[in-house]
Amino acid sequence: MSLDAVLSRIDDQLPDALTRLQTLLRIPSISTDPAYAADCRAAADWLVADLQSIGIDAQRRDTPGHPMVVGHVPGDGPHLLFYGHYDVQPVDPLELWKTDPFDPQIEDTPKGRVIRARGSSDDKGQLMTFVEACRAWKEVNGTLPCAITFFFEGEEESGSPSLVPFMQENAHELRADLALICDTGMFQSKTPAIVTMLRGMVTEEVTIKGPDVDLHSGFFGGLAANPIHTLSRILAGLHDDIGGVTLPGFYDDIPELTPELRAQWEGLGFDHARFLGDVGLSTPAGEQDRTPLEMVWSRPTAEVNGIWGGYTGAGFKTVLPAEAHAKVSFRLVEGQDPDRIRDAFRAYVTTQLPDDVTAEFHAHGGSRAGIMQTSAPAFEAARRALSNEWPEEAAYVGCGGSIPIAGHFGAVLGMNAMLIGFGKDDDAIHSPNEKYDMESFHKGTRSWARILDALSASSA
Amino acid sequence: MSLDAVLSRIDDQLPDALTRLQTLLRIPSISTDPAYAADCRAAADWLVADLQSIGIDAQRRDTPGHPMVVGHVPGDGPHLLFYGHYDVQPVDPLELWKTDPFDPQIEDTPKGRVIRARGSSDDKGQLMTFVEACRAWKEVNGTLPCAITFFFEGEEESGSPSLVPFMQENAHELRADLALICDTGMFQSKTPAIVTMLRGMVTEEVTIKGPDVDLHSGFFGGLAANPIHTLSRILAGLHDDIGGVTLPGFYDDIPELTPELRAQWEGLGFDHARFLGDVGLSTPAGEQDRTPLEMVWSRPTAEVNGIWGGYTGAGFKTVLPAEAHAKVSFRLVEGQDPDRIRDAFRAYVTTQLPDDVTAEFHAHGGSRAGIMQTSAPAFEAARRALSNEWPEEAAYVGCGGSIPIAGHFGAVLGMNAMLIGFGKDDDAIHSPNEKYDMESFHKGTRSWARILDALSASSA
């Protein structure tokens, strides 16, 4: 059977695959910093050449930002689109890295062998698992099992400004039966997982203004309005005593978990004590009448992500500041409309303002929650394929984060998306000393071979 | 009568006095920046030479920081000590200055002629009013009217680290019957004023700690404790709904105003609408059952002077921060002990901490309120002398700020202090485009001549 031959080929070719990944990891394709624009283009060019080396008709497609890479393989059966991103996060603080972030090292650690470099897990290593699976398949069978479009982005870590316009302009070319996205992780670092639920998000910056200028707290203290006080009251009032969000209408239209999903999640055996213990915490701090998995997957949040105002340097300055600021985000779930939540927040803030104090708002972005249609047969086929590769049965899981790309495939191209990835909780993505487990890279590649085999035989 | 001759002399010599002040203002004696240490020494040397030119036995007295200037004039009658400071605030943001801060300009403005330069009002111009009064007195009478010690500091704008040790080491030399301090202003910019009540202060920095590291608000949001939320609740809880401070025991032992003082303050006709209106405010924001003057002079406060945590740069980062910070100060009044207030704040914060959240405290300083003993005959003598110089009757006033030097004279040297100054509310001390009114300089000098005349005739 050809799948076994492909899996053997993947095993045999692992050292070469690793060499290719290391070559890609050496390119410092930091998308948010204009100084690295040429490196982003170089990474795109490297991917184009690598896809072409497998016989894929691939091209660099320039945009107003960093280029896309698009490749096509015709074929019978379902038409799949695979998405990954070749850009990486900045590396600062550089002094916390034990090795050069762009000189990938293979290290043996107590938890196994790892590839350490910026982008190894997010997302170059994950992206290459799919490419390497296709390469092995092609080498063994002379062709790929179905029509596949490769679609790599270079702006995922900098807000994807070119993504939706590019999708819109090239919709006829990109539209496929199903999008595969490899940018997520395994559940509790060991259970292969298909993400079926993503939270949406509203991000908002608020500036509270008091006096025209910073005042001396000796001459004005006790008489003049202090905008930090107002901001503190506003933020403190966002949550009630049991962790619920107080905005009027915030929980309207949010569905409860189905009994089936609730039972499935209970079966996952989420170890919240360990999850929190790994970061020095012990107690679920959210809605006290919800389970820990609900808190992070299926319940919305209000979080203050940044706050500043007045004197924040060394020593002390007795200033009454003219302004105070906060960055506030809301993770949204099914049923919540980003515009409505933003309006509710702004209305709440406005009602809390005392005399002489005003508020200004700056919207940073908003996206709805993403709910995957797992009833499509491809989902169960992929789940069985994953389960065959790994010691544990694959699970449908939620993800508390917001991955807007999944929603864009639905909204712009009318496609369902399936998120499968092999990252581990300790990969340190976005942090110093990022790594990707060799197991993730090797078994991830094998997983895609199994999934391609399963999906090409099903109707995605 | 000799006083009239002295006043005439002051009038005649005003152009020369102004030239001397401009020379002193050209020296950039910024005490907080080590780059200006030589300039601080140069300012001290200039003052020594200027005092010597009047026949005063003056010397630069080096300290571990910037030098003191001490000069002595023997004499009969009361022994007075005059204090001022020759160091100035930094000038940044330099781009907001209309002229070079160290190239003093004489300008005619709609409100009258001014001397514009850093330090013109705080405190070189004020300091020189006393020196010029002594110079004129000496020139007219050949001697000064009583024993006077001149004591100039060069670290007032950088926390006065050498002041108390110097006072302790030279207590026998510095002790006098009364300290005169010229570093305050006129009430509502027009009423000559003797400050008889200064607020004390406790400054405290608190760090609220949650997780060991910054977390991703997608993966942890809704489950993990957010220290910004805890900090917001703590700060919001510091005040009740009518502006009172909630710390247990905060208002214990605070005396009410005497009926006499309350009547006197009512007679001052404080125009709080104008005072607040000048900075874009309209409503007294403090304790709603107190008058505006009580809010800033005789009632204690809790103010957040700085707050920071999480991501505060451009754009948005969905971080749950490991820490959040605030700088909090309490202005204290008679009866409040700084240590007790600090302890009460720390105890309150500690009771507000949820599971997994801790607090660390850093004390920045503390000083008691200062209450001057106005029953000493010198106060009424000085008040009458001031009233003779200005169109308005001089007033005893409070000051919401904290001027620790007054307390040091009491605590270290056992001396009463009298604070008289001629600054205006719009002098922009500590800000760009600082100025000192020519009226303040001229009539301030004349005021000191009158006060010297009055005090030398009384028993200070």
From TrEMBL, chains A, B:
Query: Which InterPro entries does its entry note?
Result: Cyt/Met_Dipeptidase, Peptidase_M20, Peptidase_M20_dimer
PANTHER family of this UniProt entry? BETA-ALA-HIS DIPEPTIDASE (PTHR43270), SUCCINYL-DIAMINOPIMELATE DESUCCINYLASE (PTHR43270:SF12)
Instruction: State the UniProt keywords alphabetically.
Output: Hydrolase, Metal-binding, Protease
Write down the superkingdom of origin.
Bacteria
Q: Does the keyword Metal-binding apply?
A: yes
Q: What is this protein called?
A: M20/M25/M40 family metallo-hydrolase
Q: Where is the Peptidase M20 dimerisation domain positioned along the sequence? A: 198-356
